[in-house]
Amino acid sequence: MNRTFSLIVALFIMGYTGAVGQSQAQQVATSRVKDTTNTIDQVTLNSILDKNKQFFKQGKVADYIPELGKANPQSIAISVVNSNGRVVSAGDVQQKFTIQSISKIIALMIAVQENGEASVFEKMGYFGTDKPFNHFGNLETMGKPLNPMMNAGAILTTALIKGKGEEAFTKILKMIRFITKNEEIDYSHTVYNSERETGHRNRGMFYIMRNSGLIDGDGEDKLNNYFKQCSIEITVEDLAKIGYFFANHCIRYDGDNKYYDPNLSQLIQSQMLIAGMYEFSGEYARTVGLPSKSGVGGGITVSVPRKMGIAVFSPALDQHGNSLAGYHMILDLVKTKHLSLFD
Ligand code: GLN
């Protein structure tokens, strides 16, 4: 009898504290949500840039594409497109740099729009990777690229965009101009030539995929489209607008919803999360926890789902080919503002 009574008391206390615990958790959750929807201001960006700019010293500008080696390692910039579409930026905001691998998410968008997701992913995997971006992955073993974020998958993605000659590239350029609302964006002919003349590893992947029938046609037009898309020049603000677009169901920062597609933005963000930073993606998911895509030009674009777009630029890279000071600025901002998906 006594025992039953104490059991009831214990259950009552547990239920009560449980209820209190739950409401506290809800309060914490609400305050975090408030924090993340807070707009990021100029003062915050200035201080984040200042605190992290010295990291360029530990990185190295990419020079395997000779033209990229000419970048100033001290250039640095950060930009945010807030939930309301307002842009705030700090540093070398006018500095143009090549988009490089970040173009892969745009190519993926167009390839899926034109062919459907099933048809694209029949030819490549959804896999994450422990391999660098230019690794052949399991092209030789399984006969298919690991994912559309590594070079092999990206070369194939672009080859799947319909049209002759330069058309696939032109579609990518137009989409970037639309998303950024910047008609002046174009590609750098010198970087393009530099990539085409030295990109023999990419050429190797292209020919393996031609050999296995994944890519059809003749000549190197389809490969050249990939080199051209990588050579598109943008600024950090353009890049933040790209991050915003995929964070917000493919709605542009000014509210234009011509390409509204939650299913597509979900697919692209999931690939950014698992492979956008190549073999560093797992560690990056642990520390930053947001879909992001880097390029060897020194840019990184970040999507904060349903909220904002963030971009950074600093051409000195770490051993994985990701901007080093850029990574540290993102990390700092994400921690300060509790932006991680897993926060
Ligand atoms: N154009 C570069 C290459 O093909 C893109 C690589 C990158 O940005 N990670 O090597």
Short description:
The chain has 343 residues and is an alpha+beta fold. It has helices at residues 2-37, 42-52, 103-115, 117-121, 151-160, 167-180, 189-198, 200-211, 221-230, 236-247, 262-275, 281-287, 324-337; strands at residues 60-61, 77-81, 87-91, 97-98, 233-234, 292-294, 299-303, 309-313, 316-317. The site of glutamine has 11 residues, from loops.
Which key features would you list for this structure?
343 residues, alpha+beta, Beta-lactamase, five-stranded antiparallel β-sheet, two-stranded antiparallel ribbon, globular, binds glutamine
- Give the H and E element order: HHEEEEHHHHHHHEHHHEEEEH
**CATH structural architecture:** 3-Layer(aba) Sandwich
CATH superfamily: DD-peptidase/beta-lactamase superfamily
Major beta-sheet overview = 5 strands, antiparallel
Distance between the termini: 46 Å
How confident overall, as mean pLDDT? 91
> Any low-confidence stretches, pLDDT <50, length ≥5?
7-36
Distinct small molecules bound, one entry per kind:
glutamine
Description of the structure:
The chain is α+β, with helices and mostly antiparallel strands and 343 residues long. The chain has a single domain, classed as Beta-lactamase (3-Layer(aba) Sandwich). The chain is 49% helix and 9% strand. It has 13 helices and 9 strands. Strand 7 (299-303) and strand 8 (309-313) form a beta hairpin. The longest helix is centred in the N-terminal third of the chain and has 36 residues, at 2-37. Glutamine (GLN) is lined by residues 100-101, 133-134, 151, 195, 202, 230, 295-296, 321.
